[in-house]
Amino acid sequence: xxxxxxxxxxxxxLMFVVSSPSxxxxxxxxxxxxxxxxxxxLSVSATTRKPRPGERDGVDYHxxxxxxxxxxxxxxxxxxxxxxFDNYYGTPKAQVEEALSSGKDVLFDIDWQGAQQLGEIARxxxxxxxxxxxxxxxxxxxxxxxxxxxxxxxAARMAKADSEISHWAEYDYVVLNYELDESExxxxxxxxxxxxxxxRQIGLGAKVKAIIEGS
Length: 215
Ligand SMILES: Nc1ncnc2c1ncn2[C@@H]1O[C@H](COP(=O)(O)OP(=O)(O)OP(=O)(O)O)[C@@H](O)[C@H]1O
Ligand SMILES: Nc1nc2c(ncn2[C@@H]2O[C@H](COP(=O)(O)O)[C@@H](O)[C@H]2O)c(=O)[nH]1
What we know:
This is Guanylate kinase. Essential for recycling GMP and indirectly, cGMP. It comes from Aquisalinus flavus. ATP binds at residues 20-27. The radius of gyration is 18 Å and the shape is globular. It starts with 14 loop residues before the first strand and ends with a helix. The longest helix has 16 residues, at 180-195. The strands form 2 sheets. Strands 2-7-1-8-9 form a 5-stranded parallel sheet, sandwiched between helices. Strands 4-3-6-5 form a 4-stranded mixed sheet. The protein is built from 8 helices and 9 strands. Helices cover 42% and strands 19% of the residues. The structure holds adenosine-5'-triphosphate and the ligand Nc1nc2c(ncn2[C@@H]2O[C@H](COP(=O)(O)O)[C@@H](O)[C@H]2O)c(=O)[nH]1.
């Protein structure tokens, strides 16, 4: 689904955060948004988790060991970082700064801890969306049908689902992910509306002046 063009006026880049309990569908939805929208760039996280079948280093994640992760954290290389399900995850600063300064919006697939940390440093540019599954049973079904984690890992993620869901009210928007096309369209609507916010369109004053002056 191609996203509509809204970039006629220069504007500040958005930091678009998508969080959910594990298995609700945020990675699938983020990939759809990225495919449809050339103005959106993914923040590729670093993690100490082992790659799942098919995951590519540098594309899905930067897969690093714990020593390297802790060294990067120590030297301030992360915008935010957190321990999630016994693994470390972090957002490398450099790529986000580069994407924002080249006029892209940046998409973050991160948990509530990361969303809170980004909120402390980038409130005005941050848009936070929480994805909910239609039900707990459906969440479990999705984790099983993804078929990429052991039964123990799925059970551990389900055991954390309620506490992750409890953060839903910290988000600007909540999308119930019943059906992928519908959820993708809802996320695109949020992106379009946020991009059109007057306060983000830094070139608007000059455009209005040009319209008034007839130039
Ligand atoms: N609306 C939907 N209807 C049916 N299946 C879905 C839907 N959304 C996602 N799925 C499926 O659910 C599974 C989990 O999705 P996904 O990996 O995107 O979840 P996630 O929220 O990113 O999980 P994690 O936090 O563990 O990375 C995948 O197999 C995906 O294809
Ligand atoms: N705080 C952060 N959370 C992150 C980051 N990258 C991913 N995540 C979240 O971790 C869980 C598990 O992801 P999985 O790929 O192992 O299933 C999920 O909620 C992700 O959103 C990050 O850089 N920081």
